[in-house]
Design a protein that fits this description.
elongated; binds shikimate-3-phosphate; alpha/beta; 5-stranded parallel β-sheet; 22 helices; 35% helix; Rossmann fold; UDP-n-acetylglucosamine1-carboxyvinyl-transferase, Chain; 3 domains; 695 residues; 20% strand
Length: 695
């Protein structure tokens, strides 16, 4: 994954790339291992699932190099169809259904005995859909655990006869397992499915010289079916030279993010695989109103086009890949979303994106209906149940059906927890929702994304528009603190109350003095940075703002006692205190989205802040506000005199004197209502949000 803010001149979009396609990466590793000769692979997904495939191949004697995190090219010397060695220990497929099911076909066809196992989620997934047909064709298994579940031992004995199998539900994993069993046994194999599942196996095998035939079988009743077949062998696999395209299933999360407004002006996602058996989500998203453009990469015709799979219909082979996997760029902008209906034949082409469709539906106008997707119940989690539960927990109205969901869109703020249930796509779908405006979602198992999209969370953060740092400086009584607090609340930013830090230091000094362990008050001006560090004072970021921590406490009322208030101004003038707190203050604003008020925020603490204001008001008006704020009914003239004295001190002091930063806008609040002050600041911030993405 990579993000680059520059974008294409003029369109304000952020350019991103996603990691390699998981399905293509599994097949590239596996087929290159079975080839005769050296393959060159680039952009292989380094995710946990593909690492499981690589590790299993190594355990069977294939020298698979490290799959590096950056998709760097490597070569892999294949051992040929007959060269796999029986492993010494069970093969751990981790969380990867594709690894387990494709290997069942490979081992059965090649007659290699091995035990396959996986994590708790994979152990719960049905395997009979693969072992059933293989067994009917002569392969033998011993199911060691619960029937139909891993761990399963492939006995590697008995004569595999090949044959023809009709799948009740379209499945690329089952289709591929059967084709591989046919290929490695040299026996003819034909698989028929009621919908066209992803056809990476067919394309890649063809590119490696195996004559795989595909056909769409017309039915007068309109219920067309698809077949894929391999004739009797032997078939040798020629090595591959392949650049794996970006995973469209990973790109889908970013498309949704941009459509929901979680990526500023939008995204340009480059190098995305556009195999038409995978891009059903693009059609569905378009129907939902997603502002989406697809720009196919320059293509040239090649091996992948030799098929006759009817409506596979892509233009040909993209530059850089010789296996007939088209690629292109997706441009997505924030969109107004509408409900849609998803079902029937399009389901296999977006099976992995359906939880994400449900998440988008939560933000669309109307009720979205998803049907004919019972397969979702046997993925890495029961994706129908989990999606429904999580959406409901956030406040969305959902109806669950045996084969789908009805999701009623809402504009209301959504907040809550979304457990991932050990499922990478659930973690990411809800991560996207959480990164979109008006939503706060806590995903409990963020590391799950490593299965298919390493770097996902960093990518979300990098795609999010940078939100400015806003400073409001000004003299006492100019209204800066109340304004800052309200501006932060309206923008969903965090308010940094710099005064609270000075108060925390004052509190810590008073307590140390009182306990007899610290310096007496008379010597506070000689404080050193080391002594200050020992207080262990920090600003911690919470969901609603910053909290000041002093040691293991979070003082609040104690910061406002008269003793502290009396001394804080003197403490704030101590040079060691100022310089030490500078780091703490700056650290809070690293990610932006902070509104802060004080006296030197725009000049000293955040000289690079994107939005700066200097608030002023007539002395008399400030005195009036002060009295209203403190409610102690003092005399206006005396209060004005006090403020004038304070102004002179603030302007003349040696450390951080009060002055307007040259790039701060002066805002005279004397005749402004509170609402007017707040909206002036909010409007300017909104104008700056996202502006760095532009040309
Ligand atoms: C895959 C096929 C799909 C998909 C899975 C990967 C593959 O499963 O859900 O994530 O690589 O063949 P089915 O086609 O078996 O439903």
């Amino acid at each position: 994954m990579s993000v680059n803010d520059g974008g294409q001149p003029g369109d304000g979009l952020t350019t991103v790339r996603v990691p390699g396609d998981k399905s293509v990466s599994h097949r590239a590793l596996l087929f290159a291992a079975l080839a005769e000769g050296e393959s060159r692979l680039e952009g292989v997904l380094p995710g946990a699932d593909c690492q499981s495939t690589a590790a299993a191949l190594r355990a069977m004697g294939v020298a698979v190099p490290e799959v590096s995190a950056d998709g760097a090219p490597f070569t892999l010397r294949g051992v040929g169809g007959g060269g796999l060695r029986a492993p010494d220990a069970p093969l751990d497929c981790g969380n990867s259904g594709t690894t387990a099911r494709l290997l069942l076909g490979v081992l059965a066809g090649a007659g290699v005995p091995a035990t396959l196992d996986g994590d708790a989620s994979l152990r719960g997934r049905p395997m009979r859909r693969v072992t059933g047909p293989l067994e009917a064709m002569g392969a033998r298994f011993r199911e060691k655990g619960v029937m139909d579940r891993l761990p399963i031992r492939v006995l590697g004995e008995g004569e595999f006869r090949g044959g023809r199998w009709v799948l009740p539900v379209a499945s690329a994993q089952v289709k591929s397992a059967l084709l591989l069993a046919g290929l490695l046994s040299g026996r003819p194999m034909e698989v028929e499915e009621p919908g066209l599942s992803r056809d990476h196996t067919e394309r890649m095998l063809r590119a490696m010289g195996v004559p795989v035939r595909t056909a769409r079988v017309g039915d007068p009743g309109g219920a067309d079916r698809w077949t894929a077949s391999i004739g009797a062998g032997p078939h040798a696999l020629a090595p591959l030279d392949l650049r794996v395209p970006g995973d469209p299933s990973s790109a889908a999360f970013l498309v949704a993010l941009a459509a929901l407004g979680g990526a500023g002006k939008g995204l340009r996602i480059e190098g995305v695989g556009l195999n038409p058996t995978r891009t059903g989500f693009l059609d569905v998203f378009r129907r939902m109103g997603v502002d989406l453009e697809v720009i196919p990469d320059e293509v040239h015709r090649g091996a992948g086009d030799a098929g006759d799979a009817g409506d596979a219909g892509d233009a040909g082979v993209s530059d850089g890949s010789d296996v007939g996997e088209p690629t292109g760029t997706l441009l997505v902008r924030p969109s107004r979303l509408e409900a849609t209906e998803v079902g029937g034949r399009e389901i296999p082409s977006l099976i992995d994106e359906l939880p994400l469709v449900a998440v988008l539906a939560a933000r669309a106008r109307g009720v979205t209906r998803i049907r004919d997707a019972a397969e979702l119940r046997v993925k890495e989690s029961d994706r129908i149940a989990v999606t429904a539960q999580n959406l409901r927990a956030l406040g969305v109205t959902v109806r669950e059906f045996p084969d789908g969901l009805d999701v009623e869109g809402t504009e209301a703020p959504l907040a809550g927890r979304a457990p991932a249930h050990h499922d990478h796509r659930i973690a990411m779908a809800f991560g996207v929702l959480g990164a979109s405006p008006g939503c706060r979602v806590e995903v409990d198992d963020p590391a799950m994304v490593e299965v298919s999209f390493p770097g996902f969370w960093a990518c979300l953060r990098d795609c999010a528009p940078r939100r400015p740092v806003v400073t409001l400086d000004g003299p006492a009584g100019s209204g800066k603190s109340t304004t800052a607090r309200e501006v932060a609340a309206r923008l969903g930013y965090l308010h940094l109350d710099s005064g609270a830090l000075y108060r925390a230091v004052t509190l810590a000094l008073l307590e140390a003095d009182r306990s007899g362990r610290g310096r007496p008050e008379a010597e506070w001006s000689e404080l050193t940075v080391e002594e200050l560090e020992a207080f262990d004072i920090a600003l911690e970021r919470g969901a609603d703002g910053f909290r000041v921590r002093v040691g293991d406490r979070y003082p609040e009322a104690e910061l406002r006692t008269p003793e502290v208030t009396e001394r804080v101004s003197a403490v704030a003038r101590i040079p060691a205190v100022r310089s030490w707190l500078l780091g703490a203050q700056r650290a809070t604003a690293r990610e932006g989205g902070v509104v802060t008020d004080g006296r030197d925020m725009g000049t000293v603490v955040f000289p690079d802040a994107e939005v700066k204001f200097f608030l002023v008001a007539d002395l008399e008006e400030r005195a009036r506000r002060r009295l209203a704020e403190t409610r102690d009914g003092g005399e206006l003239g005396a209060e004005a005199d006090r403020l004038a004295r304070r102004d002179r001190e603030d302007a003349g002091r040696a450390v951080a004197p009060l002055r307007r930063a040259p790039d701060a806008e002066e805002l005279d609040t004397t005749h402004l209502t509170f609402e007017e002050q707040v909206s002036r600041v909010v409007e300017r911030v909104r104008g700056r949000e996202d502006s760095h993405r532009g040309p």
